[in-house]
Specification:
Radius of gyration: 18 Å
Number of domains: 2
Order of helices and strands: HHHH
Helix content: over 70%
Amino acid sequence: MSVSWKYEKYAKYAVSMIIGNAIVGRLSTDPSRRPAILVVNSMVRATTILAAGLLGALTPPEGRGVGVFSVVVLLYLIFGLSFGISNPICMALVNRHIPSARRATVLSVDSLFNEGGGVVGQTGLGYLSRSVSIPAA
C-alpha cells in the first residue's frame, strides 16, 4: 500500500467540507434557524468523533481491519460535512455581532485557540499512543 491512500482521504475530507459549504446556503435561509443548525452540527461532530474513538478502542485487535477503518473514514467524512456546514454560519454570526473595530482581534483569538488546541491535543495523543498504545489514543 502506498502513501497516496493517505492523501486520498485528505482529498475526500476536503470534498466533504466543500459539499457542506455548498448546502449551507439552503439550510440557513432563515437566520433564526442558524443557532439550531450550529447546535445540531456540534452534536454531530461530537458524536462522530466519539464513535470513531470508541470504535478504535473497543474493537479487539484481531477485529480491526478494512471494515473498521472504512467506518472510521466514513465518520471522519461526516465530521467534515458537518464542519463545512457550521463554519460559514459561525463566521457569519461573528461578522454580524462583533463590531468591525474588534473583529480582527476576536477572529485572531479564535484562531489561536483552535490552533493551540490542535497542537496540545495532537501532542497529548502522540504521548498517549507512545506510552500506552495507538488504539488507546
